[in-house]
Design goal:
There is one protein chain. By secondary structure, this protein is an alpha+beta fold. It is built from three helices and eight strands; from the N terminus they run αββαββββββα. The protein has an eight-stranded antiparallel sheet with strand order 1-2-8-7-6-5-4-3, with helices on one face. Helix 1 packs across helix 3. The longest helix has 31 residues. The protein is globular, with a radius of gyration of 16 Å. InterPro entries: START-like_dom_sf. This is Polyketide cyclase.
Length: 185
């Protein structure tokens, strides 16, 4: 786990972060991360993009090494899952990163789950992606609340998780902008 955390921390140094990213609460048993970006697109398009993580999530932050193996079924009870491809004749596998607990198209997608290296800890996490109208499109706020038992101190782990999730939010914005440019051109 330590190696995974060091790798996650090193990636945060090379990716531009959203305009607002912060660990907003930290305690002995958990933490809260909040990040936000403005995206020049309509709410329905951004929601559809969020539900298609293969288009924006970093493959470096998957178990398979490829975001193409990620999927979200954007309905209550739907899976945020990853398929592990078969290797060397061994059977393919899968990972449940989280379970959709709230889905309102164009407004919010909420997923319950301990992401990444948090899966091996005794924690629960809630990832909330809220979409609100903004001046030239929408504002997306990512909030991740984690609580429970962690072998690594939450104050050490929270900034690393913040870097990784902030990177994903930046990638969401970039994918939306690229998608918007294709529609205009």
């Amino acid at each position: 786990m330590r190696r995974a955390i060091l790798f996650l921390a090193s990636l945060g140094a090379v990716v531009p972060l959203p305009s607002r990213a912060a660990v907003t609460a930290n305690g002995d048993n958990g933490f809260v991360i909040e990040s936000g970006v403005d995206i020049p697109a309509d709410a329905a398009s951004v929601y559809a993009l969020i539900a298609d993580p293969a288009r924006w999530w970093s493959g470096a932050h998957t178990y398979s090494g490829s975001a193409a193996n990620l999927r979200i079924d954007p309905r209550a009870g739907g899976c945020f899952c990853e398929t592990l491809p078969a290797v060397g004749g061994k059977a393919a596998g899968s990972i449940e990163h989280g379970r959709v607990i709230y889905a309102v198209p164009g407004q919010a997608l909420r997923i319950g789950g301990a992401l990444g290296p948090l899966q091996t800890e005794g924690v629960v996490g809630t990832l909330d992606l809220a979409i609100k109208p903004a001046d030239k499109g929408v504002h997306v706020t990512l909030t991740y609340v984690v609580g429970g038992y962690m072998r690594m101190a939450p104050d050490k782990l929270a900034p690393l998780v913040d870097q990784v999730l902030s990177e994903q939010l930046s990638r969401l914005k970039q994918a939306a902008e690229k998608s918007g440019q294709r529609k205009e051109g």
